Amino acid sequence: MGAFTGFILMILSILRLVLSATSAYMPGDRKTYIVHMDKAAMPAPFSTHHHWYMSTLSSLSSPDGDAPTHLYTYNHVVDGFSAVLSQTHLKNLQKMPGHHGTYLETFGHLHTTHTPKFVGLKKHAGLWPAAGFGSDVIVGVIDSGVWPESPSFKDDGMPPVPERWRGACEVGVEFNASHCNRKLIGARSFNKGLKQYGLKISTTFDYDSPRDFFGHGTHTSSTIAGSRVQNANYFGYAEGTAIGVAPMARIAMYKIAFYNDTLKAAAVDVLAGMDQAIADGVDVMSLSLGFPETTFDENPIAIGAFAALKKGIFVACSAGNSGPRPYSIENGAPWITTVGAGTVDREFAARVTLGNEELSVIGKSVYPENLFVSREPIYFGYGNRSKEICEGNSTDPRAVAGKYIFCAFDYKGNITVSQQLEEVRRTRAAGAIISADSRQNLFPGDFDMPFVTVNLNNGELVKKYIINADNATVSIKFQITILGTKPSPQVAKFSSRGPSLRSPWILKPDILAPGVDILGAWVPNRPIATIRDIGKLLTEYALESGTSMSCPHAAGIATLLKATHHEWSSAAIRSAMMTTADVLDNAYDMIADISTGVAGTPLDFGAGHINPNKAMDPGLVYDIEVQDYINYLCALNYTSQQIRVLTGTSNFTCEHGNLDLNYPSFIIILNNTNTASFTFKRVLTNVAVTRSVYTAVVKAPAGMTVAVQPVTLSFDEKHSKAEFNLTVNINLGNDVSPKRNYLGNFGYLTWFEVNGKHQVRSPIVSAFSVSNGQ
Q: What confidence score (pLDDT) does residue 649 get?
């Protein structure tokens, strides 16, 4: 901890002691407020704003000695001061010239930015110290490039580059070898395929080099292995210490996406990038991109990932952002760890106060200005449905000039929040308060005006206040970050859902990881947000959402596991992640699907939400050999040519073709039927250091029966193996038709260690084939 931070903590501790000690002597209505003043209104006799503020407070004193208590005068963060005031003081202050507004004091605490903490990583216990924070593991990131000057890629305290590293730092447009260091140890770019299509790389919106223009690759890289950066934030939101999941790991960037009229990645360039990463000696690959689902031999990521598998390289890929539609998974090959996106226990908010504190609610906002809105008039088109819901071209700009607009929720579902905001923008209103379903997605930087979304219950309260008030007004405090929100995680609406269209016999996604409003390093050359009438804004750190953000979390955790267990295969690492994943949220309910508001299923979140500390010590793993994957391809009826293209070998036979991979999950596909039966065969490997005994426990819903044989497994030593069969019978009844999400039902198999701590859990799922869909 730095001396300055220590000093601030000391002052905060003293302040808390002072407040605690003095509160017993204060009248019950005395509270601490932050008072915003209009500096331009300072009367001429005062030489400084501080003197004006002190005089203002002095004038509030009553004859009985009840005087306000001045705390701080602010010169930079806000225009104003803080003070302890009674309700009488407050009412008199609000009538004074120059008073802009008051906000009740709230207490916070110091924190990180925040996903390593959310997934349970701790500095002095668990996977972080056991893995040396990912020391000397090399992660190849296949993406849009990197901004090497970002503080997240500083190499302070990093040891020399591993001697086994064979990579390079390429020279290109605004990029040279000196941009690499002991953190960013390699950077290359691949665009020959793009150029062969006659697509010229934009000289205005990109760089013909490993340098990132769009920010995507910079963000994902910093999420995986970014160095510790204090005071990172997105315009005041998510402020804290930014740090990657594996902060001592090395990063190598392979830029394969370039801008022409859109951001494009040619398949040949992706393959070249993955090929070079293997040659350079990476240990982990992270790909937050996808191609349209085809057979695996036509998919460059599936091909490159198989080659990586053979070299012992772990490959994590994003599941895609086409949710909540079922069968929308991308990167569904069973040798890829496919990562869905979930929320974290953090929200970015604004406090909305109506009138003279008649109503105060918390809403969601990432408006990037520390704007203080105080007692501004608010308009609601009451009595006209089109105006009430801010339907396009329904509002007269003259009626809302200088006012905030309240937009009611459209229960018919015809108008989205984005469309409502476009209507508000058209009218040139001051801003908007919108009653919104929490399932609607909004992203930072989407809109250039002050706006807040409130949930439906609060929206009804706001509407009621406006209808009944004579002169409705609104005050808003932006840039509030709330931690510990429940329930978390939830499956993001956009996260692609299973089953896999091309490979439905393997449950996908594999795992859920943080992917909503993730703070990461950004490119400071490209505006990310706009404030109306002020202009465009630049930042070094940005909030981004997508499975592009969840994938690097899984890749970072795989990096830590690789550093801890050098001998583990990629399948063993994936198994450890899956069998120890959490299926309950922080409110101890089943992880919810945010698109429906009810409990999710393994088609949404796979095995559950990733838990790195548990994954470090899973007890048992389901391992898979290269030949097992070839047998799976044979069972998919791939031709010899397809298998050779995909696997890079002609030395194979298909005499043992089998759709039943030794996977850490189980799925039965129902083809034009509501009944099915299948016996899965599995082999478990003991990765604990001691001998152990495990007992099977099944949790099955109505319509599913499960039998395990044998129900007890014994392991004599580390690396010893044991086999079991799992027979699943599905009978959903005659009146059951495929649901919207294609789910039949699901349960769980858990192996409990006798007199031990390990629990090895796998989902059991039945799902309708896509041909059954409605």
A: 85
Enumerate residues 6+ apart whose C-beta is below 8 A from 517. 238, 343, 344, 346, 348, 366, 444, 543, 544, 545
Query: Out of 216, 219, 565, 758, which one is annotated catalytic?
Result: 216
Phi, psi at residue 255, to the nearest 5°?
Answer: -80, 120
**Which comes out higher in pLDDT, residue 647 or 437?**
647
Q: SS3 of 534, please?
A: coil
Is 143 a residue of the active site? yes
Catalytic annotation on 216? yes
What the block records as the tokens of 206 is 């990109």
- On the question of pLDDT at 12 being above 80, the answer is no
Q: What pLDDT is recorded for position 687? A: 98
CA atoms within 13 A on the CB side of 387: 13
Tens of pLDDT, residues 328-341: 999 999 999 999 99
Helix (H), strand (E), coil (C) string for 60-74? CCCCCCCCCEEEEEE
Say how far apart CA 162 and CA 183 lie, in whole Å.
Answer: 11
Encoded amino acid at 61, one letter: S
**What mean pLDDT comes out for the span 94-99?**
88
Q: What is the mean pLDDT of the chain?
A: 89
Please give the pLDDT value at position 77.
40
Q: Which residue has the tokens 């009826």?
A: 637
Structure tokens at 606: 């796979």
Q: Is 51 a catalytic residue?
A: no
pTM here is 0.85
CB atoms < 10 A from the CB of 548, how many?
Answer: 26
Backbone φ and ψ of 289, nearest 5°? -155, 165
CA 703 to chain centre: 35
Q: Of the residues 548, 569, 595, 665, which is catalytic?
A: 548
CA dist 568 and 179 (Å) reads 33
Task: Answer yes or no: is pLDDT of 110 > 80.
Answer: no
Residue 744 in 3-state DSSP?
strand
- If 0-12 CB within 10 Å is exposed, 13-18 middle and 19+ buried, where does residue 189 land? buried
109 contacts 53 by C-beta, under 8 angstroms: no
| Cα→Cα distances 758→200, 382, 404, 620, Å | 55, 60, 56, 8
Distance CA 640, CA 627 (A): 14
- The catalytically annotated residue of 89, 99, 100, 143 is 143
Question: What are the start-end ranges of the E strands in 589-691?
Answer: 592-593, 598-599, 620-621, 666-670, 675-686
pLDDT (0 to 100) of residue 251: 98
User: What tens digit of pLDDT does each residue of 279-335 get?
Assistant: 999 999 999 999 888 899 888 899 899 999 999 999 999 999 999 999 999 999 999
- Give the side-chain half-sphere CA count within 13 A for 442: 27
- Using DSSP bridges, classify how beta strands 675-686 and 721-731 pair: parallel, antiparallel or unpaired: antiparallel
Percent of the chain with pLDDT over 70: 91
Three-class DSSP category at 772: helix
Q: Give yes or no for residue 541 having a pLDDT over 60.
A: yes
Helix (H, G, I), strand (E, B) or coil at 385: helix
Contact (Cβ atoms closer than 8 angstroms) between residue 450 and residue 429: no
**d(Cα 379, Cα 382) in Å, to the nearest integer?**
9
